[in-house]
Design goal:
- With 140 residues, the protein is an all-alpha fold.
- It has a domain of 95 residues: Up-down Bundle (Substrate Binding Domain Of Dnak, Chain:A, Domain 2).
- The protein is 74% helix and 0% strand.
- Helix 3 runs parallel beside helix 5.
Length: 140
């Protein structure tokens, strides 16, 4: 009888809750969200996962710089040269991504594979940014 009362009490309590507020017991939390709670110290990453994440963030910052320079260059070019730059950039992106996938493949399945991949993306992107900056200096 006591167990029946506990079950009925639980059902009544659950039914009075907002359905969006209820969770299923035994579910595991999303680990990607949990990592965000911890402050990432990219000046001194302590785990391979932290190194991977810091390398990714560093690449993303480098990619933002590339896009800024690319947009600046596009804005000053005449239409025929602008079209050539767009085609060149698309080909370059395909090269960069494929080349970095090749670099990563050496470490496939290893925890360092992400660091190798994002490091390659970052280095290649820095080189391209320098090339585009040179074009900015020489184009009217």
């Amino acid at each position: 009888m006591r167990q029946l009362l506990l079950v009925l009490s639980s059902i009544l309590t659950l039914s009075s809750l907002n359905p969006s507020a209820m969770t299923i017991a035994g579910t595991t939390p999303d680990l990607s969200e949990m990592r965000l709670v911890q402050k990432l110290n990219c000046n001194n990453p302590q785990t391979q996962a932290a190194i991977n994440e810091c390398t990714k963030l560093s690449y993303q910052n480098t990619d933002k710089k590339l896009n800024q320079v690319y947009q600046q260059l596009l804005s000053i070019l005449e239409r025929p040269r602008k079209q050539k730059l767009i085609a060149a950039q698309l080909a370059w992106i395909k090269f960069r991504d494929t080349n970095c996938e090749f670099e990563r493949s050496r470490y496939e399945g290893g925890s360092i594979a992400s660091t190798i991949y994002f490091g390659c993306l970052e280095n290649t992107t820095k080189q391209r940014t320098q090339q585009l900056q040179e074009s900015l200096k020489t184009d009217p």
